[in-house]
Design brief:
Protein name: DUF1788 domain-containing protein
Shape: globular
Strand content: 15-25%
Distance between the termini: 6 Å
Pfam families: BrxB
Structural class: alpha/beta
Number of strands: 7
Radius of gyration: 17 Å
Number of helices: 11
């Protein structure tokens, strides 16, 4: 079994390989990849994501990594819509469960006009690589399989890497290694353990 450092070191050569960018060998499926890791390595993974973005975005003219921290995306959308302060007030009066459901509705999650998916779509270009982070921070508001199931609307043929604090065995996502998400079969493990 590889260490977390060995697995992180394998990301750069993997995502800079031409077959990754062109989605070769995937049966013409959208290039969705999951880098799963033990939640205890969250800060190490965040630092490595920042390192990869800096290295590729400054050293390459043909590739660009665009990171979407889902928690930060949700906060920005709510703030732009004028809902963020209202959410704080509503939580005080009606509780967290009420705010959670109201926020999901406000974000239009899973609908054709899903605001998170629209946010991503407006910020990516053809030669980008999408990094999705913050899935642990935004739980239970957004579930990883919901993003992956709807991201094709924004990503098209752009490769996507979801950094997942938990386990992915090629079929099942388990957030934090404990919370079972819906099965998801379309993603490939970016780096094996």
């Amino acid at each position: 079994m590889k260490t977390i450092h060995e697995r992180l070191d394998e990301i750069f050569p993997r995502i800079t390989d031409s077959s990754f960018q062109e989605n070769k060998g995937l049966g013409n499926e959208v290039g969705y990849h999951i880098f799963d890791y033990h939640p205890e390595y969250e800060m190490l993974v965040r630092n490595h994501v920042a390192f990869l973005k800096d290295r590729i975005n400054h050293d390459s003219s043909s590739q660009r990594i665009v990171e979407f921290d889902l928690y930060e995306v949700v906060l920005e959308i709510l703030d732009d819509k004028g809902y963020l302060q209202k959410n704080f007030q509503m939580e005080e009066k009606k509780g967290s469960s009420y705010v959670l459901n109201a926020t999901r509705k406000a974000l239009r999650l899973t609908l054709n006009n899903d605001l998170v998916i629209q946010y991503i779509a407006e910020r990516v270009q053809e030669n980008d690589i999408i990094f999705i982070t913050g899935i642990g921070k935004v739980f239970p508001m957004i579930r990883s399989h919901v993003i992956l199931n709807n991201l094709h609307k924004a990503a098209g043929q752009i490769p996507v890497v979801l950094f997942f604090p938990g386990r992915y065995d090629g079929q099942e996502l388990q957030l934090f290694g404990e919370i079972k998400d819906e099965n998801y079969y379309r993603a490939f493990q970016l780096v094996s353990e």
